[in-house]
Write a structure and sequence with these properties.
The protein is an all-beta fold and 276 residues long. The chain is built from no helices and 17 strands.
């Protein structure tokens, strides 16, 4: 798995205001499945948000315990990835599901997932991402606290955001019952972060350094602010994200090397010292 948030290019610095979203209700029974992410079953489901559509999210409908079949987040799980960019530079990415939770500005208690990027052993980016699962099983992305480093020194918090602050809207990382054609926003902050996802296929096979996986879900990630950039991500059932490939606007590849158990202290240190 790799819970790298969507591209941080073009995002604003850390959001510090306390503005809370005024939102509209989008609950209701939905028709046959289509690109709007609707469901043909009898149970009503929350529609998948798109663009700048407001949503009303009741914190009572959410949990920080995430058990999505393609995106399980058991505290203490650690994924290690190898990323090679189009210039051939190699970095290591370590993602840890921590024991910590955070109540974000919109009132939802989220799981804290630590994402640390190292190049030549030095930390270049360190992030706390916040995720929660709703009662339907959708996994929501609620924000991040991020820091970038050069030569060991903090140089930027660019890309940080929090649902419910300065108009930032939460989004979906994976819908509860992913099927080809489903489309959804991953996050939204006008002119700064406008990332989207779409389900492309299920039941695929993928081979990476960590092994071979079947029953793999493939998604397409795009950014409305960078329309020429497209990524495909591959999620293995029971494992999570195992592969990310640039298919347009670049040639980078990031693949899972191993998944193991992290020590209890992993991921809970300050930014720049993840203890992972």
């Amino acid at each position: 798995m790799k819970l790298r948030r969507p591209s941080t290019k073009g995002r604003s610095p850390t959001l510090a205001a306390s503005f809370v979203l005024t939102v509209a209700v989008v609950l209701g029974g939905l028709a046959a499945c289509g690109e709007d992410g609707s469901d043909s079953g009898d149970e009503p489901r929350r529609s998948l948000p798109r663009g700048d559509e407001p949503v009303e999210l009741d914190p009572a409908d959410f949990t920080a315990d995430i058990d999505h079949p393609y995106l399980p987040m058991e505290p203490g799980t650690r994924w290690t990835y190898r990323e090679v960019d189009e210039e051939g530079n190699v970095v290591e990415v370590v993602v840890v599901v921590t024991t910590e939770t955070k109540t974000v500005a919109n009132g939802i208690t989220a799981r804290v997932v630590r994402d640390t990027v190292r190049e030549d052993g030095e930390i270049v980016e360190d992030t706390r991402d916040w995720f929660a699962q709703d009662e339907d099983g959708n996994v929501w992305y609620l924000g991040e606290d991020t820091a970038e480093f050069e030569d060991g020194a903090l140089v930027s918090h660019e890309g940080a955001w929090e649902a419910g602050v300065d108009g930032a809207l939460p989004g979906i990382i994976l819908p509860a019952d992913p099927r080809p054609g489903m489309a959804y926003r991953q996050e939204y902050l006008a002119g700064e972060a406008e990332d989207n996802g779409r389900i492309l296929a299920v039941g695929e096979d993928v081979e990476v350094r960590a092994g071979s996986f079947d029953d793999v879900l493939r998604t397409e990630d795009t950014n409305a602010l960078e329309p020429d950039v497209v990524e495909h991500k591959y999620y293995a059932r029971g494992v999570g994200l195992v592969l990310t490939v640039d298919v347009q606007g670049g040639s980078g590849r990031e693949e899972l090397i191993r998944v193991d158990d992290a020590p209890p202290s992993a991921g809970i240190g300050p930014l720049g010292r993840p203890n992972s």
